[in-house]
Design brief:
Strand content: 15-25%
CATH class: Alpha Beta
InterPro entries: AB_hydrolase, AB_hydrolase_1, AB_hydrolase_fold, PcaD/CatD
Organism: Dactylosporangium salmoneum
Protein name: 3-oxoadipate enol-lactonase
Strand order of the largest sheet: 1-3-2-4-5-6-7
Bound molecules: ligand LWBT4IAB
CATH topology: Rossmann fold
CATH architecture: 3-Layer(aba) Sandwich
Number of strands: 7
Shape: globular
Length: 255
């Protein structure tokens, strides 16, 4: 299958180590805004939108994790990046595991946040894909927000949450559905032992979408890995705990 030309934004000083950031299902590259000022000038950051998300083209689904991974390899080729560290959250983390297992020469250090190597039941993902194709994104936005943020965060900081609701509602339904189908078909468990990149696995203690047990399984499967469970964080742990997550990423990739 032909790779999709991904939308990206690159920031940070020329010559600093590269870090690619891949986001969650239903997000766009603005989900990483809380991290950018916190990285300071230590990293040259490339944020990208998965196919079907944000500013990237929206090919018809279903997608596979491999398709999303090959899109990222094409992006690296286009930007002239031979080797980079990679950090992905949720769907972005699934792509990161695929990349580190199948294109190890391109990946230096790996950070996997609130993600899973296998996330059944497939039927649930396929039903969600069917639902958004039928009714669009707006009706599912509140349910997604309920997994992205803890009730306490949503109640205390509605102005911080509102842009994320808009982000979900703006995601193309076909792109979201294709992403659901990629997760339904995904099983990266046998890939974990092939990953040699030093890996930091981060789980949100209160993540209902990919609870910490999934992070533990990834940590058990990747030989050179470390697991950190971040308290008071649901699925978008980087938004709810921006300082902690930025520090963990930055320390791991610049160590
Ligand atoms: O269920 C959700 O909306 C959260 C999620 C699971 C995988 C992903 O990328 O986001």
């Amino acid at each position: 299958m032909t790779a999709t030309t991904l939308f990206q934004r690159t920031t940070g000083p020329l010559g600093a180590p590269f870090l690619l950031l891949g986001g969650s299902l239903g997000s766009n590259l603005d989900m990483w805004r809380p991290q950018l000022p916190r990285f300071g000038d230590r990293l040259r950051v490339v944020r990208f939108d998965h196919r079907g998300h944000g500013g990237s083209p929206v090919p018809a689904g279903p997608y596979r994790i491999e398709d999303l991974g090959r899109d990222v390899i094409a992006l690296l080729d286009r930007l002239g990046i031979e080797r980079t560290s990679y950090c992905g959250l949720s769907l972005g983390g699934m792509v990161g595991m695929w990349l580190a297992a199948h294109a190890p020469e391109r990946i230096d250090r790996l950070v996997l946040i609130c993600t899973a190597a296998h996330l059944p039941p497939a039927d649930g993902w396929l039903a969600r894909a069917e639902q958004v194709r039928a009714v669009g994104m707006a009706p599912v936005a509140d349910a997604v927000l309920g997994r992205w943020f803890t009730p306490r965060f949503r109640a205390a900081l509605p102005a911080r949450v509102a842009p994320y609701r808009a982000m979900i509602a703006a995601c193309p339904a076909e792109g979201y559905a294709g992403g659901c189908e990629a997760i339904a078909a995904m099983d990266l468990r046998e890939d974990l032992h092939r990953i040699g990149a030093p890996t930091l696995v981060i789980a949100g203690a209160d993540d209902p979408a990919s609870p910490p047990e999934h992070g533990e399984r990834i940590h058990e499967g990747i030989r050179d890995s470390r697991l950190v469970v971040v308290p008071n964080a649901a699925h978008l742990a980087n938004v709810e705990q921006p300082d902690t997550i930025a520090q963990l990423i930055s320390d791991h990739v610049t160590d």
